[in-house]
Design brief:
The structure holds two protein chains of two kinds. Helix content of chain A is 28%, strand content 37%. By secondary structure, chain A is of the alpha+beta class. Chain B is of the alpha/beta class. Classes of the chains: A alpha+beta, B alpha/beta. At the A-B interface, strand 3, helix 3, strand 4 and helix 4 of A face helix 6, helix 9 and strand 7 of B.
Chain lengths: 187, 347
């Protein structure tokens, strides 16, 4: 049974920090410390899934002081800061929130691991579609074997996360998540 | 501003008897209003089918029949709020104008834009998805302008909903912790998504009844955008619901309880903005007046925003004269959705 304690947000163990750090540094060439800056990492575990959040240090202190105050009540911590990634059965998936904190750290475009797409592809990508090779204007190969790329438009706006895939003699960018999701999510 | 680990309900200044007596007085006065304006109210309710005759009576008492109908025909401004965490208003305006939108500055704010024309639905543009702006009514923006939380060190948004005002607070103060409460998990999920979309890192959101907020310690800046009848949107048939006197009394009871809690969690000198998307006297000046009569620990403050003065007399009810410092926004006068905003200071 999931208790309130089990669903609580806590500072992450170092191992989750390393998993996230590996993603940002090997795929995008950005040190996690640069991206997080004044933020801390928080984790919430449920079954086989760990959700990671980035929040300001004072939010983490606020969380620590509020948690005992609501322990014996129906109140729950719902969210803190920005939801940035999910780890399921050891595999990490970056979320739109991670793009947000990379952008706030002024690391768009990143050193590596990004693709610039044309206007046609931008529209399709924001509908949840993949990007075909002919619509990729520029590709900076990610430095990791997960092949995660940040998908950008021609104005350097971060549209979402993709994954480079090969199909016969071409490549395409599989849509992992795009900012159109904010409209499709239904909330 | 310590958080209480061992929670004990504070001694209530507002007793159950005070509350019951005030609600009963209000009920009697509203019954008289309904009888007084019954015929005209039925005419309005027949013509505007989303309005209950009780509502029509109450607003005829507030405005006059002619002015109420003029208000119902008003067309408020459509506005968006530039997300100044990512972009300033001018740059956003230039960017959207290149897409064919016609915009002008919403001058009472440093980030509001009036959408005069748009070739596409304003919530479907890429710039919206990228978090460069959010859709927000003009009066709604003024509630946070009134609060002015830029120098606060611990802020609470007691009824945060989807977080539109919460994220607006974060634009004013990107560093101080902002605690956001709501009792609707679907709205909290929307708030969570808005934090990500709008790049806001300093919010902690709790699923919590705001009447229990005394568990959370003291705050120096408090926004209470209280659950209300929504009559400020009475000009929109699709968004408005018919409200009887009984509906209003239920909401007034909750609003009094919430404001009482807001005053309990305010540290000395704290500023509280009480706001509703309603133009009713019952849900605004009457609520604050109820607490002024039993508590001596707060006062009304002047607010530097546009609007008509607060109402100190309605039917046979009279409030403290300081309630005139509240600001009332009307669709037919100010071009906004109906709203009432009052600013209090804990003494």
């Amino acid at each position: 049974m999931q208790t309130k304690k089990n669903l609580a947000l806590h500072r992450c163990d170092k191992r989750y920090y390393h998993v996230l750090s590996k993603l940002t540094s090997t795929c995008q060439g950005i040190r996690l410390e640069t991206v997080l800056r004044e933020n801390e990492l928080l984790c919430r575990k449920k079954d086989n899934t760990v959700d990671l959040y980035a929040a300001r240090e004072n939010i983490v202190r606020e969380l620590a002081s509020i948690r005992p105050a609501i322990e014996n009540s129906r109140a729950e911590i719902f969210t803190a800061g920005i939801h940035i990634a999910r780890i399921k059965r050891g595999k990490i998936t970056p979320l739109l929130g991670l793009l947000a904190i990379i952008r706030l750290a002024e690391k768009i475009p990143p050193p590596t691991g990004y693709a610039v797409v044309n206007e046609k592809a931008e529209k399709l990508f924001l509908y949840g579609k993949d990007v075909f090779q002919e619509n990729i204007l520029k590709l900076s190969q990610p430095g990791c074997n997960k092949n995660y790329v940040i998908v950008l438009n021609e104005h350097n706006d971060a549209l979402g996360w993709g994954r480079i895939r090969k199909q016969q003699n071409t490549i395409y960018i599989q849509n992992i998540i795009d900012v159109g999701w904010y409209l499709r999510s239904g909330v | 501003m310590s958080v209480t680990n061992q929670h004990r309900e504070p001694d209530r200044i507002l007793s159950q008897k005070n509350l019951t007596d005030r609600l009963e007085l209000l009920r009697q006065v509203l019954q008289e209003v309904v009888i007084k304006h019954g015929k005209q109210a039925r005419e309005i309710a027949t013509k505007y089918r989303w309005i209950h005759p009780h509502q029509a009576s109450r607003y005829i008492e507030l405005f006059s029949k002619e002015e109420f109908e003029k208000m119902l025909r008003a067309k408020p401004l459509q506005t968006i709020r530039a997300n100044t965490i990512l972009i300033d208003r001018n740059r956003l305006k230039q960017r959207l104008e290149r897409k064919g939108l016609v915009l002008s500055d919403y001058k009472p704010t440093p980030y509001g834009l009036v959408v005069e024309q748009s070739p596409k639905p304003i919530g479907a543009l890429h710039e919206y998805m990228l978090g460069l702006y959010t859709i927000q009514g003009p009066a709604s923006m003024l509630a946070v302008i009134a609060l002015d939380p830029s120098k606060a060190s611990r802020i609470i948004d007691m009824c945060a909903g989807a977080g539109i005002k919460t994220t607006q607070i974060a634009q004013h103060n990107t560093k101080a912790p902002i605690v956001a409460l709501d009792i609707n998990k679907r709205k909290l999920l929307a708030l969570k998504n808005n934090l990500s979309r709008l790049h806001v890192r300093n919010v902690l959101a709790l699923y919590m009844d705001a009447r229990e907020a005394t568990r959370l310690g003291k705050f120096d800046s408090i926004l209470l955008d209280a659950p209300c009848s929504g009559e400020g949107l009475i000009i929109y048939p699709q968004k408005s619901r018919p409200r009887t006197v009984a509906d209003i009394l239920t909401r007034v009871k909750l609003q009094i309880e919430l404001l009482d809690t807001a005053l309990d969690i305010a540290q000395k000198g704290a500023e509280i903005v009480y706001a509703t998307c309603s133009m009713s006297f019952e849900e605004n000046e009457y609520v604050i007046d109820t607490l002024l009569r039993v508590r001596r620990d707060f006062e009304l403050e002047d607010i530097g925003i546009p609007g008509n003065k607060g109402i100190t007399s309605y039917a046979s009810l009279r409030t403290d004269p300081s309630l005139s410092k509240c600001k009332r926004l009307y669709p037919h006068i100010h071009g906004t959705e109906g709203f009432t905003i009052c600013k209090l200071r804990k003494t």
